[in-house]
Write a structure and sequence with these properties.
CATH class of the largest domain: Alpha Beta
Number of strands: 11
Structural class: alpha/beta
Shape: globular
CATH superfamily of the largest domain: Rhodanese-like domain
CATH topology of the largest domain: Oxidized Rhodanese, domain 1
Length: about 270
C-alpha cells in the first residue's frame, strides 16, 4: 500500500505536484492570513470553509460540497486528474486531512498529506515564500463515492451492530463535560472516544503504522467488523480516517458528524 503521507524531502523531490495550503483554525483567524506571511513555494491557498465544504446548515457545520461546486474549486486551484496533489497545514494535519479525504472521495487517485506540515518543512531547512502563484486552470472531474461515507443512520447502526464508531473529539467533549460549539453536549450512543491528538507523536507527525494499528486495535477496531469516525463537523474525523489508512485499516467518515447529529432532537445523546 502506498502511504498517504509524504515527507518534506519527498515533496521537494516530487516535482509537478499541485500543492495546497489548507491552514485553518476553528473560529479563526482566517488561514489566508498565515498563507500570506509565508508558504511553500508554488502552494495555493485552499479555503476549508469555502472550497472543502458547503455552507453550514442541513448536514452540519461543514457539509460535503456538491460535486459541481467542488470541481469548480479544485480546477480554480490548479488540480489536475493526472497530477499528484500534496496538502498541508500547520496543525498536525487536522485541516489537511479534510482536503485529502474530500479529494479522495471525489475520485482523485494521488493525494498525499505532508507529514508534520509546514513546521516539518521549515525544520528540514526547506524554503518558504510570500509570492502568490497564479495556478493554471485544472481539469479535475469530481466523481463522488471514492471513499466510504456514513449518514447519521448508518453511523448509529455501525455503533450498535458490532462495528466501531470512533469519536475524534477531545475526551471532555465526548463525555459531555463541555461543548464550546454545538448546542448539545455528549456523543452518539455506542461511540468510542478516540481523540485525534493521540494519532501524532510529540513532533506533530503521525505515529508509525504499527503504533497506529496497535492504538486502533486497542479501541476495538477489527477489519472484518467495520469502522467509522465522526467529530464536531467532519474535519478532525477525516484525520482519524487518514490515521487509519496509514495503519492499513479502512474506515468510513460521518461527514455531518456531531453538528448534524444534534440537528434532529429525536436522536439520542449519551454522556459520560
Amino acid at each position: 500500500m502506498t502511504s498517504p503521507l509524504i515527507t518534506p524531502a519527498g515533496l521537494a523531490a516530487l516535482g509537478g505536484a499541485t500543492v495546497l495550503d489548507v491552514r485553518w483554525r476553528l473560529g479563526g483567524p482566517p488561514g489566508i492570513e498565515s498563507y500570506r506571511e509565508g508558504h511553500i513555494e508554488g502552494a495555493v491557498f485552499c479555503d476549508l470553509d469555502a472550497d472543502l465544504a458547503a455552507p453550514p446548515g442541513r448536514g452540519g457545520r461543514h457539509p460535503l460540497p456538491d460535486a459541481a461546486a467542488f470541481q469548480r474549486a479544485m480546477r480554480r486551484l490548479g488540480v489536475f486528474e493526472g497530477r499528484p496533489v500534496v496538502v498541508y497545514d500547520d496543525a498536525g494535519a487536522t485541516a489537511a486531512a479534510r482536503a485529502w479525504w474530500t479529494l479522495r472521495y471525489f475520485g482523485h487517485q494521488d493525494v498525499r498529506v505532508l507529514d508534520g506540515g509546514l513546521p516539518a518543512w521549515i525544520a528540514a531547512g526547506m524554503p518558504t515564500t510570500k509570492e502568490t502563484p497564479q495556478p493554471v486552470e485544472g481539469d479535475f472531474t469530481a466523481r463522488p463515492g471514492g471513499m466510504p461515507a456514513l449518514t447519521a443512520e448508518e453511523a448509529a447502526a455501525l455503533a450498535q451492530r458490532g462495528g466501531v464508531l470512533l469519536d475524534a473529539r477531545a475526551g471532555e467533549r465526548y463525555r459531555g463535560e463541555v461543548e464550546p460549539i454545538d448546542p448539545v453536549a455528549g456523543h452518539i450512543p455506542g461511540a468510542v472516544s478516540a481523540p485525534t491528538t493521540e494519532n501524532l507523536g510529540p513532533d506533530g507527525r503521525f505515529l508509525d503504522p504499527e503504533a497506529l494499528r496497535a492504538r486502533f486495535s486497542g479501541l476495538g477496531v477489527r477489519e472484518e467488523a467495520g469502522a467509522g469516525a465522526y467529530c464536531g463537523s467532519g474535519v478532525t474525523a477525516a484525520h482519524e480516517v487518514l490515521a487509519m489508512e496509514v495503519a492499513g485499516l479502512p474506515a468510513a467518515l460521518y461527514v455531518g458528524s456531531w453538528s448534524d447529529w444534534v440537528s434532529d432532537p429525536a436522536r439520542p445523546v449519551a454522556t459520560g
